[in-house]
Amino acid sequence: MNGLFCMYKGYKRRNAKLDALVKSPPAYLAQSSVPLVNQTFQDVEWLHVLKQLYEHLSERYRLLSRVILARKLHHEHFFSKTLDYGHAQYLAKLQREKLTALRALERLERRTAEVLYQQEKWFGWVRQRQNEEEDERAAQAAQVKKEAAMFKRYRKELERRTKELKKKEDLKRQEEYLNEAYRERMSQEEEEEEWDPVEDCIEDERGTYIDLIKYFLMLKDSSEEDGTEEENGKSSEATGAGNTNAAEASNGSKTAKKRAKKAKSSQGSTETSTTEANQLGENNITMETKSEIEKRLREGVEYAQGGGLLVRGTIENPIELAHKTAPIPEEEIKTLLADIAEIKHLLFCRLLLSHASLLPAALRADSVEDFLNDKEVAAADLRDLCLKMEKPGLQEVRDACADLIRGEEEDEPDQNDGPVDNEDEDSEARKARKEMRPRFKHRRDAVPEVWHTKREKEMLKRRAQSRKMLGEAGATMVDFGTTNDEGEAQAKRMRVKVCGRYIYNYPSEKALTRGGWFHFSIIAKDSSFYDAIQLCRNWDEFFELNVLAIWQYFPAAKWLGFIPYFQFDHAAKTSVHHQTGSRGQGRRSHAMVEARNFMCAHIKRNDAASRRFIQYLSVETSLVVCLVRDAVTGKTLVSPPEEQLWLLREKSGLGRASKNEWNVIAQVGPKFFEDMERYRRWHFSFNEYYDVYVWDAVPGQKFYNLHNTIQGLLIKAHRFHSVREFYEVEAPILKTLVRDKDTQRARDAKPGERTIYDSLNSADTHFKSWNEKDEVIVDTEEDREARGTFYNEADAAEDRMLFPEELSGSTNELFKENMASMNVFEKRGPDFNRFAADLDTDEELESDDGEHSEGSLCPSCRGSGDDHDHNHHGEHSDEWVSDDTDADADDGWFSGPLAEYFAQSAASAERGNQAIDVTKYFKAPPELDPANMEREFMSFIDREKSKVFKEGWHKADLEPGAQLKYSTALRMVKRMATYNLLQPPARTDPFFKFLKQSGGVMEHRRVVPDMLGAFAAMSLFFTPEFLSSDSGTEFQDSLLVKQAERAKQLPDRRRYDSNKYMPNEFWKDWDTVCKRRQPYPFEWDIAIRPIIAHLYKSGVITMAYEEQVPGKAIAAKEPGRGLDLYIDFRQLVKTVDMPPELQDPTKVTREGLLNTARGFARANPNARFAVLRIWSAPHFYPLMIGYDRRWTVSFADAVGRHWEWKFIPKDMPCSEWSIHHQARLRIRPYQASFGKKVIVKRDMYLVMGEDEVDLLKLAAAVTYAAQTEPWRLEIDLWRSFVNVDLAFLEGLHHAWMD
């Protein structure tokens, strides 16, 4: 009997067993009418039936596999390639039956898991794993291809094996060899079981996989073999075994011996080229043998140089490491190899942990060898393990590196690793409020307020699914069936013993340590730094990894630091301007293309330096334009005007270029965001960052302009005072690193060694840098101050205004846009729900849940003056103080005393003895006709604007103590108004009658409150008994009513003169600086930067996106005062042409007013006077500038940033004319009643009364006229003097009457 006969005999025996098994199925299958291919086993409820079915199908699948293999061997040896006599068809039938049995087994296992889960409730993880395996059915063909590719990589070893097998086959074909084999076999037939070549082929295949796994685990290495080629087996077609013939099989009875001859089958991996490794996919790596790793660490590897500028010979990039990584000492290599071997074992254990069918055997085994020798481990499972071990994923390798350092007791995952979001309102509340508030919407925004990339959406979706599937805290990757007393499954984090090694049943969720990344870089030798970035858990882990890579800490070829994820730097080459004039033979034509450089990058979220950087970047509009998006919320934090979003545009045609419109080719928006996501080479796996897009403000610039601007702002944001401090951000890492003296390799420092940080801060270390003009910048104190390169005193003064929360010790470092009320109003518009609900601006809108809505954008500027929220006014003003004991709202006196007053007025009106029917002015009619609707709507808009404007104006008032004075005046007026309402109506009737007779009163719902407020403001100076009442006792010592003492304290304010009337001597210092081209005086910068920052935070100025601006901010001194802010608009003086209807206020002089008052006093012996000043801030008037005219009052500050005013600055040429005109317009409707008793001088009214009663009536009327609709102007009581005589008027300092 020879090998061919044994093959034939074994083939027939298995066929007979298979036929017998099919004819005698279990009772369930025999009685079922559903064929096996459609059987789901859903009606089986008993475990013993499921076990019986499992045993039957398993044996059936095993026999089918062996029959198919034997059939292939039989067919190859007994039939020609062209004639098979139906055997191929029969083989195809068997393969279909095998597939049917396999699918039936899968469905049976799923049903078994369901029954077990229902009965024991701790097999959820089995179901999860089986679901995953079922989802991978479509990848079976790819799995086979991977297997073939794996053996292809070992082709040299397999070719050597094939040659040996061919040689042995030739020997076997010799007659003597066959006869001897026949005699030996016949003599042994009675002593032992017949040899089966099919079983030997299966065992041979299993042994090959085991040997490969051992090589991957570094249990074997090429150095352990003798290098001979005598002991090789298995052909290149290892999986199919189709090339094995009967003669080969006849010599393979000793399978254990054959397995021992495959020791070198895995050496083919050492021949894998770099090109092949790159073809493995970006998320996989190729395993190396121990000798390969040792050689690479000992000799170093060549760096894979990328693009960009890299300066050699610096402390970061030594010359010794210009082209190759530094070698590692032998002692350290031995330790690293031991660690890597352990990591590979942990990787193997974690792969087993995720393999449901292999996990029981892995839990039983005490070592890897025991597991591999377990007969229950199928060859197909070993094949899958072999493929995974040969090319493990980068995430799997990272988890294994983390497992190496995990101890027996592991803390819960650090909650701080996740994103920090300390927003004032949650997303649901913001969404609900947004839906409740209708806004103006002219068109769809080019940049949405909230936007997530597709990748971020997928990441959020996966996390949500993971939380839903695994639960919240305590959820595990693999549930090992812990149940409570009630039999309910309890998810638990735990350590399990897999193949003799303890491992947690979930991957590490913490940041990987430095040592872990070092091991990772060695194992994943073909990975790049970009691959490592995607595996970081949070920003801090990424930052440390980035710093270590910059300092060549890792012995890897592609780990060379970090760059922004995308940038365009060819704007200068792309921009083209071609234009022909009209004097040539052809027509005038033009062709223009403009491009802007841009950069896309990420910065850390919830970080003080990042917050400052975004703030600086957003106001640097003269050089750059930026857009910032929060990756956590998707909210756009900073966005420029739509006309500034373009990156590439063109226009061409005939005629003048100025008359043609630009065609925008590319701009920042959702499509641009998606393009950047597609083009970038790396991504984060976390969202703890801000997405920043920066581009040039001016097209066609060199890229270094953009680069230098960003670098300069980063220096300021990190508050670096010198070049040496550049390394302070990296200090915690550099203090633990040292450069090897011989190889310059960066490694962990040992106790007592001089670290890199020590070298940087040594007195022997000097720093120099060069600018774009090739000028050497030496790091000296004088140079820093002159160039403004580093953080200085002016920056610190500005930061105190921009970031007041830093002074309070707030831990919330999230960036928040400037939420000044004016900015919010411009962005969102008014709350139209208030208009629809017929609410006055000072009334609250109730939401569905009974809480007040955010309809009021200016809660601190209500008529009551209480509950103000003006904090952080810095060094220029006191905090706004409110009286909590008197915190009753407006409706306290509008619904109490005022309601009673209205009732009395209505009764008096019916009797015909009421001076004015106030009830018709109190509330609008329930139903408005269309003619009045538009006026009511515009009145509502004006009232909303007035609230918003007043809040911003008073916050921007930099006069010392201004906010406290204003708050006090409002409270006094409110108390006075309540006091007046409690008095007999005869007190207010003359005032109401006077206004009624003047004919200037317009009907609107705020008429009566405005009248009473104006009358109360003036009554403060005519009602001394009020100060002795309970309501006014606390104000007895107030300087507001002690006018003589107040007049002696001159206002601490800059002069009001505009540039046109400013004396030339005032500009002398600034003109000297300009003529001599001297640097901007540093003390000026310190003085004006915080003032500009305060105005910006208040909302009265904003960034200007203009390339050229007409003004320049300077600092100057007036007698008795320090440096203050002034704007040089002198170049506009000659361009100003005032309309004829405007009067020149300079013609009304102080002496002229006093002469008029003297004449009036002579004619009226009891004459009393009032000087009423319209409120204005030291730097601007409360007069709005049209949006399209703001550029005319734009200016540059000391560092070149461009700003524009929203309201008329006092420095604007002829600004006095504007406020003088507005003051005249306010009293024009009442001029007939006022006569010559009221005179206007710029922002001041001189009111002359024949006596106190007459003056009270006139002064209150002037106050009402100034303060009523559109409610933007106010009488500044602290700068006004009421009910004074001529002598007092003559004694007033010119600062009060000029």
TrEMBL record:
Residues 408-427, 880-889 have a biased composition (Acidic residues). Residues 141-192 form a coiled coil. Residues 864-879 have a biased composition (Basic and acidic residues). Residues 236-254, 265-276 have a biased composition (Low complexity). Residues 223-288, 408-439, 843-889 are annotated as: Disordered. Keywords: Coiled coil. Residues 255-264 have a biased composition (Basic residues). The keyword Secreted does not apply. Residues 277-288 have a biased composition (Polar residues). The keyword Magnesium does not apply. This is Mfs allantoate protein.
